[in-house]
Amino acid sequence: MNTRRSRLAAAVATAALASIALAGCSGAAGADSAAPAADPSSLVLALVPSQDQANLVDTAKPLTDMLTEKLGIPVSGVVSKDYQAAVEAMGAGQAQIGFLPSLQLWQANDRYGASVVLQTERNGNITYPGQFMTNDPDKYCDTPVVERDGMSFCNGADALQGPAGLDSITKIAGAKVAVLGPGSPAGYIYPMLALKEAGVDIDSGFQKVPVTANDASVLAVYNGDAEVGFSFWDARTLVKKDKPDVGQKVVVFGLTNEIPNDGVAVSKDLSPELQKKISTALADYSATDEGSAALKAVYSITKLAPADPSSLDVVARAAQQLGLQ
After folding, report:
1. In three state form, how does the secondary structure of the chain look?
2. What pLDDT was estimated at residue 325?
3. Could you read off the pLDDT of 137-171 as tens digits, one per residue?
4. Per-residue confidence at 202, pLDDT binned at 50, 70, 90?
């Protein structure tokens, strides 16, 4: 990948490191540069808060338990405060494995030499769109609302592939909009880029309602705290258990361009042998019924497959167009 540093990451690096407390040890610390460092005696898996942060570590326990068994060393999971914190944790040796969105995979590789070893599949798809959702379909829907698998769509968004419905996003001007942090491809970068290209002032053209995770964006729209929200497709399923009518109250009216799927990065400080053991264990686990269920509970992943790091460049270019690179 091209060597480019993220202005965004540089701006938040100090805060990110202060906000995350990870208990791992890095094999690179204090190592003799003439000889490879020994692999650490324990590993930390960094998770980003794409859903309820409080319960994510518990949800990921079957995954960390499996890695502990397969690798023969303890693996613990920690949820970072935000997307960038997970990248900085890997760069600082505070985490050795990261389940990261596409932009953060690119950054971990570009800035810290992490190996991007796996990318996710969801129901056979290797890309996904960001979605625009609303509680006011009369305003944003230019076509009748239709239902698919218990979820409501309009403007052709029921095709489940982006882009769709982007002619309607200019109506966001002046509205309250639930927005994730700038590190989120689906919750910030791609929706903001679509708005910018549609001529909407993304700095002051609407009222931003900051949220920390995709399920929080859905709930902000569901509860009426925001008229529109951004998230990955289809984050409404994250809250359906507690809000069974979310598919009717929250309507998806637009989809962004397709985004490369998230995946797994491992620290460059780990030996090639341990990196291989980690990626093999995760890929094999995803191919089992138990593993698929566990990964689906964590990040709606149905399979992990070998990564194509070059596919992530498109996300970096999108971020650059917003001045984030």
Report:
1. CCCCCCHHHHHHHHHHHHHCCCCCCCCCCCCCCCCCCCCCCCEEEEECCCCCHHHHHHHCHHHHHHHHHHHCCCEEEEECCCHHHHHHHHHCCCCCEEEECHHHHHHHHHHHCCEEEEEEEECCECEEEEEEEECCHHHHCCCCCEEECCEEECCCHHHCCCCECHHHHHHHCCCEEEECCCCCHHHHHHHHHHHHHCCCCCCCCCEEEECCCHHHHHHHHHCCCCCEEEEECCHHHHCCCCCCCHHHHCEEEEEEEEEECCEEEECCCCCHHHHHHHHHHHHHHHCCHHHHHHHHHHHCCCEEEECCHHHHHHHHHHHHHCCCC
2. 61
3. 999 999 999 999 999 999 999 998 999 999 999 99
4. very high
Burial 73-107 (b: 16+ CB within 10 A, else e): eebbbbbbbbbbbbbbbbbbbbbbbbbbbbbbbbb
- Domain assignment of residue 81, given as a range: 7-124+261-321
Token pair, residue 54, equals 């409080």
The pLDDT of residue 21 is 41
Pair 248, 297 in one domain: no
CATH assignment at residue 207: 3.40.190.10
Give the model's pLDDT for residue 50: 63
If phi > 0 it is left, if psi is from -120 to 50 it is alpha, else beta; for residue 264 that is beta
**pLDDT of amino acid 36:** 56
Query: How many domains in the chain?
Result: 2
